[in-house]
Structures are given as structure tokens and as C-alpha cells.
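Handoff note, outgoing to incoming analyst
You'll be picking up this chain. Sequence as last confirmed:
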Amino acid sequence: MDNNLNATFEACNSFNTKLKDTLMGLIGANNDRKREIDSIRSDHEQLKKDHNAFENSATRENDLRKNEIKSLEERQQKDNQARIQDTNKLESKLDTENKARIEEIKAIDNWARQENDARKTEIANLDNFAHTENDARKAEIAAIDKFSKSENEIRKADISALNQRCDSEQVARDAEDKLLNERIEKETRDRENATSELQSRMDNQNDDKARELEELRARMIKENSFLNALATKTMSVYFDAYRNKAYDGGGEENLTFNGSLCNVGGGLDVDSGIFTAPVGGMYFFMFHIATHDNKKALLSIRKNGDEIASIFDQNHKDNHKNSMAGQTIIIDCQRGDEIVVYAYTGTWLADFPMNHYTHWVGMLLKPNEEEVNMLRKSVEEGVDPCVSAAPVGNGYD
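Most recent structure output, in case you need it:
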């Protein structure tokens, strides 16, 4: 009930605040109207002063202007009269609006009083309702207390009956536990006999497993030897050959080289230009050249005499310039296959001691299955699979 009263008082305070704001707005509007009237009166006084100044000036300048001044004075008087009438009308309008605002304020005040009386009536009704509800709750609480006491007596009787039932069931459980213990002891004896028999069988099986593990250990030792040999064996094969002077041999021959930056595996003979695969597998080959002035270049990469890829560059008669050309290829080689760069008729290549345009590069990407099997077989036979690599060439010889 206190909360309802507080809410009612807050609503009344909110209404009083709104009423105050409305009255202050009306007073502000009335002040604005007064300022407008004062402004109009000030304009009228200024016009009157201007008229008197103009009349004095016109009299001094020329008497002929008197008629015009008189006419102007008459016109000015009419205008002044019109301004006075307008001012009177405006004052009348403001009085009327002020009276209307006063009537509205009175009406709002009467409405607020009526609302306040209505709120008081509602609060009184709410207080009566709260007293009635409180009496009803007291009667319900008394009825619940009586019901709980009767239920408590019933629960006590149920608990006594339950205790008697638990005692009888405990006796039955003891008898069942005795029978169960006897059965468990018999099962335990049977399990012990079965365990003894199983232990004997496990011992026999362990002997068999020990023999199998010994055989597996021997196989693992061989496999480990193979993996160690594979890890220590250098199966890398790569080379990079170059020329340091121009080629003008006329063609129809294998292209030779003047030196190599590297030749791991010793597969390349720079004097003959023949690369003999020391290990079977997939190889990556790359060949780059620069054509001579106004000359052509026609070469091919051959495997065991068969052409695999070609390089062709021509048509420099108009621009008299060199150009770079090249070819890149991956070839599946067997141990002992020969890979060469073959130059055809009319091939001219540009190279200088300090500008090595021609480069013949090869690299083993992955050994084939046959090489891996050979290595495994050598390990199983007890032969050292590590073969010393050929000397490595470095720099521009």
C-alpha cells in the first residue's frame, strides 16, 4: 500500500511540474507580445522625428516645396493614424489572447484538483482492499498450519511402519549374504584352478613368442643396417658445365664445354660433353645459350642418340642483336644412359672468358626402385654400399 501511495504522489508531482511549465510558457509568450508593441511604438517615434527634420529642411530650401510638404504631412498623418489603429488592434488581440490563456490556466487548475480528489479516492479503496486481503491470508495460514500438523502425525505412523519393514528385510538380506558368500568361495576355487591351467598355457606360448621376437630382431638389425647405409650413402648427382669462348664449329657434333662449376657423381665429361648417368632415376636438365651476332642456333638434348628436346633461335639479320634461348626437361634415366647436347649445322654461340652465357645443368631428383633394391641387396650380403663420389669441380677453370 505504501508503494501505491508513493506512486500516486509521484504522479501528482509530475502533473504539477507540467502545469508549472505550461504557465511559464504562457508568461514568456505574453512578454514577447509586449516587446513587439514596444518595437512598433519606437518605429512610430522614429518616423515622427524624421518627418519633423524633413519639414524644417524643406522650409529652408524653397517655399515652393510647402505644398508638397503639406501633402506629405497629410499622407504622413494618415499613415500615423493607420499605425495607431494597427497598434490598438494588436493590443486588443493581445488582451484577448491573454484572457484566453488565463481561462485555460483556470481550467487546468480545476482539472488538477479533480484528478487529485480521484487519486485520494483510489488510495482509500486500495487501503480497504489491502486490509481485506490481509484477513484472508491470515485465515489461509491458520488452515495450512492445521493441515501440516495432521500430515505430520500421518508421516510419523508411516515411518514406524517403514522401520519394521526394514528390520524384516535386513534379516532376509543376512540369509541371502550367507548363501552368496558360499557361492563366491566355490567360484573362487574354480577360478584358481582355471588360472593355474591358463598360466601353464601362457608359459608355452611365451616360449613361442620369444623365438618369434628373436627372428624379428634379426630382421630389424638387417633393416637398420640398410637404413643406415641409405642415410650415409651420397646419392646426389648434379653438375653445371659452361663455355668461356664462342662456338663456331659448324655443328653436327656433340657440344663440348671448357669447365664445370660442380660435377658431383662424376657423370659429366666436359671434354666430350657426354653425361653418363652414374645412378638410375629421374633427372632434371636445363640448357641455356646466347646466339652469336646475325647467326642462328639449333641444338637438341639427346638420350642415347635419341632426340628428347630442342633449342632453336634465328632471325637476327634486321636487328643485329644477340638473344638468350634455353630448354628445361625431366628425363627418366637408367644407370649408364648417355645424355648430350647436340649442335646442328650453322650453330653459332656467343661466349667470352668473363661472360659465360652457355650453361649445361643436370640434377638427380630421385633414384629409381632398382637402385634402392641394389643397395638393400648389398647390405643383406654384407658388402659396403658406400661408394666414394667422384671429385667435385668448383669455379671457372
